[in-house]
Design goal:
Shape: globular
Strand order of the largest sheet: 3-19-16-18-17-20
Number of strands: 20
Largest sheet: 6 strands, mixed, barrel
Radius of gyration: 22 Å
Structural class: alpha+beta
């Protein structure tokens, strides 16, 4: 979702950041918020960890300027991270839990920050480019009402952005004509991403077209990767690290996307009789690719979405989520912000993706990211952290779960959403 990370849900699902169906978002009014008590939260008294306080402090970088959060954030900054009973009392005094309810079972999936081997130099060993944003990619921010119009006129704004010229249907010199029907638009679309051709904004190139060389000659290369399968997974996750020959890292973060909707390669494998739905996981997809190298590009091209990256500071913090704050492995989740406001504490009750009898995973996390496949109220993508072990857990995470939204006392859910 890492915005903007498309979670592994999106990869496996039949939907960046994990569901195995193309389930539409809940209909308006089907997501409800039931007042609850902390006694209703499984293992509440035993599950507190210092990372839960750290997660709130990270959220406060964005929330502390808001009136409802100002005092909460100020108090959180003074707490002793080692005093877990005091942290528990702080949450109980400052927040009220709301059980999020919607039809069906809640779904909890996972994502992680991958590690790739690579180089700053193109070679036979590192032939696959990690691209920055192409110079010809344009982004037009537009409201739902504007996207419903038959014709728009736009003009250049800062950087690669375009802005709608209100009231115009004919483009003058230096302006661009836009037909929203040329693009795939849904209820979540807030921007059109394209290229200018003969004074018109047209959809940007698909993955297959980019892989064939279209448009990409205007994109900077941030690094070269050894493995195109791992590079594909990097695009699904939206962020990761590339280890160079000298042991140093290039940290790649989500910068932009080509505007095409994500199509699940897990769904493609199921629909083409290559795999059973119950067998789909990150590991099983990699095994299929290894066994079918001649069809690898066909599989990748089934997903027209393509992610472009930017270089991030090479520190030990987690990747940046949609809030613009570092994600905390095991304590950050991606959510649908229509139902859970970014930054809010969320109590998660699910199970670990382990063989044998289920082991409870109950803890206080924070909503700090979003993802294209995360749609619904009782829907979260759990950030497992960095590296191979995190990837193994994330690739198998497909669990039922429950969520409680924690809001400052006196605040109603409807006031936030």
């Amino acid at each position: 979702m890492l915005k903007h990370l498309l979670p592994l849900a999106a990869l496996l699902a039949l939907s960046a950041c994990s569901t195995l169906s193309t389930t539409p978002p809940p209909a308006s009014g089907t997501v409800r918020y039931q007042p609850a008590s902390f006694a209703d939260l499984p293992d509440w008294g035993q599950s507190m960890a210092s990372q839960s306080l750290e997660g709130l402090r990270l959220s406060c970088r964005s929330l502390q300027g808001r009136a409802a959060w100002k005092d909460i954030c100020a108090e959180a900054a003074t707490l002793d991270a080692a005093n877990l009973p005091a942290i528990t009392r702080f949450y109980e005094a400052r927040f009220a839990p709301w059980r999020i309810v919607e039809p069906g079972n809640g779904l909890i999936t996972g994502y992680f920050e991958p590690l790739l081997a690579g180089s700053h130099q193109h070679s036979a060993q590192t032939p696959y480019a990690v691209y920055g944003v192409p110079a010809d990619l344009r982004v037009l921010d537009a409201s739902a009402a504007q996207l419903a119009a038959s014709v728009l006129v736009a003009r250049p704004a800062a950087g690669n952005r375009l802005q709608v010229v209100p009231g115009k249907t004919r483009a003058d010199a230096g302006e661009v004509l836009v037909n929203p029907k040329d693009f795939v638009v849904d209820s979540r679309t807030r921007a059109l991403k394209g290229r200018i051709d003969n004074g018109r904004l047209l959809p940007y190139y698909s993955r297959a077209e980019i892989n064939a060389g279209k448009g990409i000659n205007t994109a900077p290369v941030l690094a070269w990767a050894e493995d195109d399968t791992e590079l594909f997974f990097l695009q699904v996750q939206g962020s990761g690290r590339i280890q160079l020959e000298d042991g140093s890292y290039v940290r790649a973060g989500y910068a932009e996307q080509n505007g095409h909707g994500y199509k699940s390669i897990g769904r493609w494998l199921v629909d083409n009789g290559q795999m059973k739905l119950s067998d789909v996981s990150m590991q099983s997809i990699k095994e299929w690719i290894a066994a079918n190298p001649a069809r690898k590009q066909e599989l990748f091209n089934a997903n027209p979405s393509y992610v472009f990256f930017k270089t991030l500071p090479a520190d030990n913090n987690g990747p940046l989520g949609a809030m613009g704050v570092p994600l905390l492995g095991g304590y950050s989740v991606a959510v649908d912000p229509r139902y859970i406001p970014l930054g809010a504490p969320v109590y998660l009750s699910t199970t670990w993706p382990l063989d044998g009898s289920p082991k409870a995973l109950n803890r206080l996390v924070h909503a700090q990211d979003t993802g294209g496949a995360i749609r619904g109220g009782v829907r979260a993508d759990f950030f497992f952290g960095f590296g191979t072990e995190a990837g193994l857990y994330a690739g198998r995470m497909k669990q039922n779960g429950r969520l409680w939204l924690l809001l400052p006392r006196g605040m109603q859910p409807a006031a936030n959403l």
